[in-house]
Amino acid sequence: MPHTSLHRTPMQGPAQILTDISDGIGTITLHHEAKRNALSEHMVQEMIQAFDQFKQADVRVAILRALPGIKVWSAGHDVTELPAGGHDPLSWQDSLRTLIREVEVFPGPVIALIEGGVWGGACELVFACDMVVATPEATFAATPAKLGVPYNVTGLLTFLNVAPPHIAKELLFTGRPMTAARLERQGVINGVVPAEHIGAHVFEMARTIAQNAPLAVSVMKEQLRILAGANAVSPGDFERIQSLRRVVYNSQDYAEGIQAFKEKRLPHYHGE
Amino acid sequence: MPHTSLHRTPMQGPAQILTDISDGIGTITLHHEAKRNALSEHMVQEMIQAFDQFKQADVRVAILRALPGIKVWSAGHDVTELPAGGHDPLSWQDSLRTLIREVEVFPGPVIALIEGGVWGGACELVFACDMVVATPEATFAATPAKLGVPYNVTGLLTFLNVAPPHIAKELLFTGRPMTAARLERQGVINGVVPAEHIGAHVFEMARTIAQNAPLAVSVMKEQLRILAGANAVSPGDFERIQSLRRVVYNSQDYAEGIQAFKEKRLPHYHGE
Amino acid sequence: MPHTSLHRTPMQGPAQILTDISDGIGTITLHHEAKRNALSEHMVQEMIQAFDQFKQADVRVAILRALPGIKVWSAGHDVTELPAGGHDPLSWQDSLRTLIREVEVFPGPVIALIEGGVWGGACELVFACDMVVATPEATFAATPAKLGVPYNVTGLLTFLNVAPPHIAKELLFTGRPMTAARLERQGVINGVVPAEHIGAHVFEMARTIAQNAPLAVSVMKEQLRILAGANAVSPGDFERIQSLRRVVYNSQDYAEGIQAFKEKRLPHYHGE
Amino acid sequence: MPHTSLHRTPMQGPAQILTDISDGIGTITLHHEAKRNALSEHMVQEMIQAFDQFKQADVRVAILRALPGIKVWSAGHDVTELPAGGHDPLSWQDSLRTLIREVEVFPGPVIALIEGGVWGGACELVFACDMVVATPEATFAATPAKLGVPYNVTGLLTFLNVAPPHIAKELLFTGRPMTAARLERQGVINGVVPAEHIGAHVFEMARTIAQNAPLAVSVMKEQLRILAGANAVSPGDFERIQSLRRVVYNSQDYAEGIQAFKEKRLPHYHGE
Amino acid sequence: MPHTSLHRTPMQGPAQILTDISDGIGTITLHHEAKRNALSEHMVQEMIQAFDQFKQADVRVAILRALPGIKVWSAGHDVTELPAGGHDPLSWQDSLRTLIREVEVFPGPVIALIEGGVWGGACELVFACDMVVATPEATFAATPAKLGVPYNVTGLLTFLNVAPPHIAKELLFTGRPMTAARLERQGVINGVVPAEHIGAHVFEMARTIAQNAPLAVSVMKEQLRILAGANAVSPGDFERIQSLRRVVYNSQDYAEGIQAFKEKRLPHYHGE
Amino acid sequence: MPHTSLHRTPMQGPAQILTDISDGIGTITLHHEAKRNALSEHMVQEMIQAFDQFKQADVRVAILRALPGIKVWSAGHDVTELPAGGHDPLSWQDSLRTLIREVEVFPGPVIALIEGGVWGGACELVFACDMVVATPEATFAATPAKLGVPYNVTGLLTFLNVAPPHIAKELLFTGRPMTAARLERQGVINGVVPAEHIGAHVFEMARTIAQNAPLAVSVMKEQLRILAGANAVSPGDFERIQSLRRVVYNSQDYAEGIQAFKEKRLPHYHGE
Ligand code: NI
Ligand code: NI
Ligand code: NI
């Protein structure tokens, strides 16, 4: 990254992200290492503010990254913020969902720059970016099945849109981390670049885009968003799915998954 | 596979499959080598029974395989069971279609473990599984164009859902076998593992899934199934397609294709 | 290519393509090197005539190629034919769109054989073919963002149908050339073959298909076409998109992009 | 009704419906006047049993009615069974929804014979029948807006499918009863017949249908069901709607509506 | 009708229709009273020729009628032309389906002028016209359930598009004739006019349209056609429906219905 | 109307509407009789401001009306504001389209109260309201075919959503006025009430709705809006339609229609 000073976004409580604008390129750096950059309500609000600030500053391309050399890019949902059983943990107002919509409607491309592990909801956030570049050591793990959380339909659609179905299912059903190299080979991510070069590489990619015609780029992004969301589902199917998801978040396993996570032990599931 | 004894499913006539349940993982082993594991009406009925048995036994993950060391995993449709010209060879009640729906709605993931050649309808069956792991020697050939059979829409959708369109077309239009290595590179299958390790590898994958929350896995599978089938076609387009398919199965070429197969010679087509 | 003589298609003005039929395989060779095989109105009309001629001659497979050893396979739209600002540059009657529909409804598979650079609209034309084989030196660049042209929805759907979304976005947002090797790895193209062998390789592929049952191949191609176009968009979304595109082709940047191209200089955009 | 004896369906607790089969025509008579035939869990279970019994007895047409001369055909949901705030009152497993699906998939037509008032959920049940005949005194009132209940999407689709949108909105937004004469004029119901003749009239209509080819009738009903449910909604829109509905059933107004109903007073709403 | 001379369309065998063009308005008069204007293959071919002739003559509006004073406007399908059991009686190439598509894509509005009875397939043909005007004595009967014929999806969509679902079901399930007055009241037809005035009334309506801007009318008709056919059905649902229809046309009841019709007796159905 | 004083909305230039809020009910009264309440850019902006003001004032129901006793409720588009040929006259940013979206997303129901003639674009505006009540003398005329204007898809969808297709086509193809009585009979409008009572009648209807639970009403309106817009059109069909519409607004007839209107003479069309 050719620009060294990182500025704090003013907000109540200590900031959890850093932002920077340079050459028409806005950078958001996750900076809450104590919580492994978990996507807390607070951090998400800061990111939304940052995207607003970028829009006002006519930013053409945004980069989403963590600090260089980090071990965990983001641990995903702040599990302590998930509701206890009986309520949908992933509704439309959920902070992750709100952030993902923000990324999708930001008028310029958003590039994710990944070092370290990307877990759970952070995995969907990264896949929802327009492009993804990672270091060879980066890994991606989709963990709802590990936690017992019933993922929502638009969330699964993010996975299905960027990954071949067999690969998406392996990610989602095993919950095991997948390497950057494997995901690049299958077109899920755009490139694998060593840590020492990745900042310059992504910035160069952003600069190329920023020199293109911004309106043309912006309308293409919006057209692709509409096409990607055009999997039409009948109301009957959708209500049935919601009902199946409700069984899950009312189940003992759901409570066990969250409890186990908080107690830092393996969950023990019975399918009930 | 860590469990050695394989049990026969009780049924009239000699069984064509073996089934086994261990550690919450059910295994179906195709075992009708005399007919190269062709997907006969009889074998399909046994498989459907096995899936029912798995559901009652709370099986969390199913594995679909053939005997180790086999040359042909399955030859696909039993061509002798296809109707002569004048009737749709691939209707909703066709045994292959029924089996594929069974795989799709089975409440846990189904992993295909592939050694040897996978031909014709068996190719669709394998692609309809949730994950696929193969040995380096495995090959996949989609043969309807070779036989002159007009594939049906949901069948083609299975190919289009798991393979990039240019690759799906190469498979379907040439009918030539494609290697496991190539399909893995393009995200169509999940892994290539040498024959000596593949059993343990797949069983380990299944065990990982079986330890996750079963309800969460199950509802995600169902959501992905709905999304994958959501290619909405207008009634007008569909009836036109049915009509084009009818031209094919009423053609001389269709009769020639089946005849040539039975006489073990190359067909000679005129496009009529 | 086993057949050496290339015949000119009779038409007013010097022909811009060569055509040939042999063994039930029709070949169209772009042959307007002076204009880097730009897809002019004239060339497109010749290609449409050639496809008609192929249909009458019961051609089973078509090959679309340029002369061996060429540096630019096709430069895409003839920019001098694009309308000045204020009118949609990519409407349904646009010659490129007409040609692409012709490729999609041609009753047999169309294989693109690529040497050299493929730019802009030519990139979509090649991706709209049923299969693509390229030499290691071939590159593919989608340039609307460079020119400031708002691409249309069916055009973007061609990209989204054949490439993983993150890769499609990289192509479209950066406008930079992507290598054949990278596109093959991600399933966008079918093979990379050295220049000296590519002719024979593609002809062999075509011959394999031509020996299969033509009606079965033809109806599968049509079914896949219907399924690939089945991304249903609501009229409201569509009219909003048209309106966004109109903003683009009425913008100063659009005029600047075309002007800069004609003056062979880099455009300078302001997002207005 | 030409057949006078009505038989009780055996079940635990006093039966709330009567059933009868004669001439291939099954009749369900709501018979829980003490509760104004509210669609309690218990009554719905009995009706589902009755439809099962009809299927086993090869019933060709079903009639759904109340006792002759009744003032309230059905008061709709048993409001005391609705959940207090915080949970979706109209989920897929809701007894009304289950019953409506039962009516929709019953293999023969279901004719509603209406005397008296039809309120709330009963209004949707009647509209979901295949045909509706009413006495001149019958009235229909859709009351979710009066109670403050957020109706679900498939429920609203039932209204939108059978009534012109402006009429459906008047029913749903005002909550006021609409007369049979008005609904007949606009094609929402099939006929208005004086109380003394309505039984014979409906039975004659049923007999006409019962003499037609049962398989042809049955498959047409199923085709029309599929077409009527084919309003495809994008996952994003659906999740947003679910979220809006959640705001409603978490609101003070929702609690007030149910409370007021139980206290038999007018509710007082604040839009919060 | 202000124009008295009716010209025969030249064709092999005695003509079954009369055609006339005057003031930019083309009139097709069914004229095969011996067969009650049954929609035979021959008559349909003549009608398609007439529409072609109208297009070449820049006809702005077409009128479809029978001779004044006739008792049966059209008896619908020529039942003797329906296939015996085992083959789909209503495929895409069926002459009725072809004619209906011709009416739908004719560039100007088609007005049906109805005196007498309209039966079976003729009922769909009339509903597929853009407007319908009838005498008070006219009646409409949809008879597939009487004959045991499984109607196809686009055919049912024609009914569902023009009639409220409860009315469409009454028509289709009872097979009984419905009066013009009732259909006018519910918006299915546009007007009821006494026999002595109907010719002048319809011609005046046609003249009003013919004086409007033809291109604007034509594109609106096409837009409405697209919107009316936009009930998207998933491939899985469609193939299931085809399979249910196949059960019907393979049934004993189907054969019995056609046999009874030919023997001019009531059919006797068993649901098998 | 129980409230007598009407307040002017502050805005530059003389106000063209009056607004009033009373009992939670907001009323907009068109008041530009000199231009027959044509929907000018200026009037539309005032109406949008009024809806904003209503939202801030927690208005539960809006009434849209003209002054009592008026002869022309609204003449529709201000034809002098339509673009000359060569540009789409009905794009997404068109003031009528913007206003209609405003009506559709206003959180409470909007009731149109109609006296006098409703012409052209005003006809769509009225149909886009949630309910419509008219005096016996009111008439409705859809005039694009008279003017030669190619209507847009969402505009036609408004007609198709509220009127039976045969009636919608009669309105659109003839351009002739239809009476309130006829439209009420077919469910297109909600009631016909004599001029002396209509104000009180509509206000009473609004008050009934305003006493219901506002959140429940609001979410039902939004759900119905989504369902009504869910006619999914494929990108290919849409672009073809746009292209057909372009032919129309580039035609001589289009210019002639606008010219004739300005010169207050009948247009003379040639279909070119
Ligand atoms: Ni800085
Ligand atoms: Ni030659
Ligand atoms: Ni009895």
UniProtKB/TrEMBL annotation, chains A, B, C, D, E, F:
Transmembrane spans: none
Q: Name one Pfam family in it.
A: ECH_1
What UniProt keywords apply to this chain's record, in alphabetical order? Lyase
Task: Report the superkingdom from the record.
Answer: Bacteria
For this UniProt entry, the molecular function terms from Gene Ontology, in alphabetical order, are: lyase activity
* Entries under InterPro entries matching the protein: ClpP/crotonase-like_dom_sf, Enoyl-CoA_hydra/iso, Enoyl-CoA_hydra_C
Q: Does the keyword GTP-binding apply?
A: no
Coiled coil region boundaries: none
- Family annotation (SUPFAM superfamilies): ClpP/crotonase
**What is a biological process (GO) this protein takes part in?**
fatty acid beta-oxidation
Q: Which family does it belong to?
A: Belongs to the enoyl-CoA hydratase/isomerase family.
Its protein name is Methylmalonyl-CoA decarboxylase
Originating species = Giesbergeria anulus
